[in-house]
Automatic annotation (TrEMBL):
It comes from Aminicella lysinilytica. Residues 36-49, 138-147 have a biased composition (Basic and acidic residues). Residues 36-55, 125-163 are annotated as: Disordered. This is DUF4355 domain-containing protein.
C-alpha cells in the first residue's frame, strides 16, 4: 500500500470517517466482549433501547406537531392574503370613484390588474371619478311612488318632445 496525498476535503473526510468507524468498531467489540454475559450489560442495553424508543416517539410527535403548525400557517396566510386583496380592491374602488358595493366584483392578481379592471368598469358604467351616479330626474320620473298620473304625464311629455 503506497502513500497517496490527500488533496480534497472529500478525500480527507472519507479517510477520517473510515478511521473513526474502525475505532468505534474496536471499542464496541471490546465492550461487548467484556460485558456480554453479565446482567449489568443486559440492563444497560434495555435502558438504552427504552431511551431510544422514547426519543423516537418524541421525534414522531414533534414531526406531527410541525405538520399541524405548517397547515395552520398555510391557512392563516391564505386568510391574510384574502383580506389584503379585499382591502386593495376597496381602496382602488374608492380611488377611481367606483361604488363600494362593486369593489368585490373587481378581479386581478395584483394591484395593477385590479386597478385596470376598476377603471374599465367605471368606463362601462359611465361614471367618472368625482361624479356621483345620477339620481331620479324630476321631469322624467314620478315624484310620488305609485302615482299613475305622474307616470302618464311624464310619458306624454316625452311623446310630445317637451322637456
Amino acid at each position: 500500500m503506497s502513500f497517496t496525498p490527500i488533496t480534497t476535503q472529500e478525500d480527507f473526510d472519507k479517510a477520517i470517517k473510515d478511521r473513526l468507524d474502525r475505532e468505534k468498531k474496536t471499542i464496541t467489540d471490546e465492550v461487548t466482549k467484556k460485558y456480554a454475559g453479565t446482567e449489568e450489560w443486559q440492563e444497560q442495553q434495555k435502558k438504552l433501547n427504552d431511551q431510544l424508543g422514547e426519543q423516537t416517539k418524541a421525534i414522531e410527535e414533534a414531526a406531527e406537531a410541525s405538520k399541524k403548525n405548517e397547515a395552520t400557517i398555510t391557512e392563516l396566510t391564505d386568510k391574510v392574503k384574502k383580506y389584503e386583496i379585499a382591502s386593495v380592491k376597496a381602496r382602488i374602488a374608492n380611488e377611481v370613484g367606483l361604488q363600494y358595493q362593486l369593489a368585490s366584483r373587481l378581479s386581478g392578481e395584483d394591484e395593477e390588474a385590479i386597478k385596470k379592471d376598476a377603471e374599465s368598469l367605471v368606463k362601462l358604467m359611465g361614471n367618472e371619478k368625482g361624479t356621483p351616479p345620477p339620481l331620479a330626474h324630476p321631469e322624467t320620473e314620478p315624484t310620488e311612488k305609485g302615482s299613475k298620473n305622474a307616470a302618464l304625464k311624464g310619458m306624454l311629455q316625452n311623446m310630445k318632445g317637451e322637456e
